[in-house]
């Protein structure tokens, strides 16, 4: 079945360009468009897309708040959000990731990267390499908790090994690198990552990295 995509951007020309690129792919179908966050919420409810290609800076409701309402607690729909931005180190990207986005893509990315990004996010994977997430979080650490806040109760649900794995995910290591670091198999690492996501109620590795920073488990700039 084709991946159902909703395009959300306040610039009609950009939406037209994205539509032309995506509709050339047999496995992708553009099911609708929206010019701001409020329209996006209505379209998501009606069209039930698999992936929302979301601009950040829009009138009436920006992409961060729209992302929060589409993917936030209590939302069990299929839609995943891929954020579009003009800047690769935009503080709004951090907010969008915290709100539930599965990754971000630069607006000037080549067409094949846009297509691949849609497929990756639709498959339930995080588009961002955790190392990129870490670079974002380190840069905008001022927007994150000071580290003096109490440790969230949810962190105590993890085993010692799961905490180790979470730290390594936040440091930007791949499953293979984590496996080598902990002297276990990649399959074991995948199992641990799955348990971490389930116990903490997180969607993907990107949200896991954000959680590790917000909980104080990982400090900005730490190795």
From TrEMBL:
<dbReference type="InterPro" id="IPR011006">
    <property type="entry name" value="CheY-like_superfamily"/>
</dbReference>
<keyword id="KW-0804">Transcription</keyword>
<feature type="domain" description="Response regulatory">
    <location>
        <begin position="4"/>
        <end position="122"/>
    </location>
</feature>
<keyword id="KW-0597">Phosphoprotein</keyword>
<protein>
    <submittedName>
        <fullName>Response regulator transcription factor</fullName>
    </submittedName>
</protein>
<dbReference type="InterPro" id="IPR001789">
    <property type="entry name" value="Sig_transdc_resp-reg_receiver"/>
</dbReference>
<dbReference type="Pfam" id="PF00072">
    <property type="entry name" value="Response_reg"/>
</dbReference>
<feature type="modified residue" description="4-aspartylphosphate">
    <location>
        <position position="55"/>
    </location>
</feature>
<dbReference type="Pfam" id="PF00196">
    <property type="entry name" value="GerE"/>
</dbReference>
<dbReference type="InterPro" id="IPR058245">
    <property type="entry name" value="NreC/VraR/RcsB-like_REC"/>
</dbReference>
<dbReference type="InterPro" id="IPR016032">
    <property type="entry name" value="Sig_transdc_resp-reg_C-effctor"/>
</dbReference>
<feature type="domain" description="HTH luxR-type">
    <location>
        <begin position="151"/>
        <end position="216"/>
    </location>
</feature>
<keyword id="KW-0805">Transcription regulation</keyword>
<dbReference type="InterPro" id="IPR039420">
    <property type="entry name" value="WalR-like"/>
</dbReference>
<dbReference type="InterPro" id="IPR000792">
    <property type="entry name" value="Tscrpt_reg_LuxR_C"/>
</dbReference>
<keyword id="KW-0238">DNA-binding</keyword>
């Amino acid at each position: 079945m084709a991946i159902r995509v909703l395009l959300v951007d306040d610039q009609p020309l950009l939406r037209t360009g994205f539509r032309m690129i995506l509709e050339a792919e047999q496995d992708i179908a553009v099911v609708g468009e929206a010019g701001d966050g409020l329209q996006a919420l209505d379209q998501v409810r009606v069209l039930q897309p698999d992936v929302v290609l979301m601009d950040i800076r829009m009138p009436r409701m920006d992409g961060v708040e729209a992302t929060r309402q589409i993917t936030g607690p209590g939302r069990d729909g299929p839609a995943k959000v891929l954020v579009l931005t003009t800047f690769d180190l935009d503080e709004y990207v951090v907010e969008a990731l915290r709100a539930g986005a599965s990754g971000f893509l630069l607006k000037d990315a080549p067409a094949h990267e846009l297509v691949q990004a849609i497929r990756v996010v639709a498959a339930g994977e995080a588009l961002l390499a955790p190392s990129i997430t870490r670079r974002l979080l380190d840069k905008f650490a001022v927007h994150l908790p000071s580290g003096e806040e109490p440790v969230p109760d949810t962190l105590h649900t993890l085993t010692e090994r799961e905490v180790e794995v979470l730290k390594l995910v936040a440091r930007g290591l791949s499953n293979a690198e984590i496996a080598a670091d902990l002297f276990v198999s990649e399959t074991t690492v995948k199992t641990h990552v799955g348990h971490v996501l389930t116990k903490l109620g997180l969607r993907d590795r990107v949200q896991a990295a954000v959680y590790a920073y917000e909980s104080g488990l990982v400090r900005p700039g730490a190795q």
